[in-house]
Amino acid sequence: MLRRAVLLAEEEIIKPEHIDFLIKGRETPVENEKTSAINEFPCLSLEETEEMAIRKALDITNGNKSKAAKILKISYMTLFRKIKTYNI
Questions:
Q1: What is d(CA 40, CA 36) in angstroms, rounded to the nearest whole number?
Q2: Beta-carbon neighbour count of residue 71 at 10 Å?
Q3: What are the residue ranges of helices labelled H in the chain?
Q4: Residue range 78-86: average pLDDT?
Q5: Between the CA of residue 50 and those of 18, 58, what are the distances in Å?
Q6: Which fold has domain 3-85?
Q7: What's the CA gap between 1 and 48, in Å, rounded?
Q8: Rounded to an integer, what distance in angstroms lies between the CA atom of residue 29 and that of residue 81?
Q9: What is the mean pLDDT of residues 9-18?
């Protein structure tokens, strides 16, 4: 899931704009008004970035876990475990 973000990141830190394509289902990251607010926090850890992506996907799908898992391209059970891990 994050392999492409690691490849797209020119620095050692993965920023939210590097994972935007995961949520939008696009092939490359896209800068837009939704990510601009997130860009204020450029030094997020991998876990924080993953949690933010999960929260954003759940927000976009109005809490529908099946749809959020599809957007994130992970299984429903993986999403379920991550929701439990991050107390979402």
A1: 7
A2: 21
A3: 3-8, 16-24, 33-38, 46-60, 65-72, 76-85
A4: 95
A5: 11, 12
A6: Arc Repressor Mutant, subunit A (1.10.10)
A7: 15
A8: 26
A9: 63
Confidence of residue 28 (pLDDT cuts 50, 70, 90): very low
Percent of the chain with pLDDT over 70: 52
- The answer on pLDDT for 5 being more than 60 is no
Tokens of 23: 């949520």
Domain edges within the chain = 3-85
59 or 34: which leads in pLDDT? 59
Q: Which two tokens mark 2?
A: 């994050």
Round to whole Å and give the CA distance between 49 and 53. 6
pLDDT top residue among 27 and 52: 52
| Tokens coding 46 | 């991998």
